[in-house]
């Protein structure tokens, strides 16, 4: 398997080269090995729908550019259709409020939206900040 290296303030991590998730998801997968059970598709779809609503609200407020909003919405709709179900690799049981799963979703959406906009998937041209896309 080929890998890419992603870095942040905690250091560098090897991420599968073709993954749409990133460094946060890889770290969380190592920390939150609780049940081995992954989230059900209905949960993944529900969270993607929340992201669409947030995206639409931020676009209407002028906080998010329309072209980026369209790319994010398209990425979310692809997730809802099941296209990226293999990218949600975290255990369904986590500590706290589900931040790791939320970040897994954010990384997948941001990387797919970057592809839609013509950027390299894991480029530095992030649609939103790497550490918290919850506001889009």
Quick recap of the structure?
The chain has 136 residues and is mainly alpha-helical. The chain has four helices and two strands.
Characterization of this structure:
With 136 residues, this protein is mainly alpha-helical. It has a single domain, classed as Fumarase/aspartase (N-terminal domain) (Fumarase C, Chain B, domain 1), CATH 1.10.275. The chain is 46% helix and 9% strand. It is built from 4 helices and 2 strands, in the order ββαααα. The chain has helices at residues 23-31, 41-60, 66-80, 99-116, and strands at residues 3-8, 11-16. It has a two-stranded antiparallel ribbon. A hairpin with a 2-residue loop joins β1 (3-8) and β2. α1 (23-31) packs antiparallel against α4 and α2 (41-60) runs antiparallel to α3. The chain is globular and about 40 Å long. The N and C termini lie far apart (32 Å). Residues 129-136 have low confidence and may be disordered.
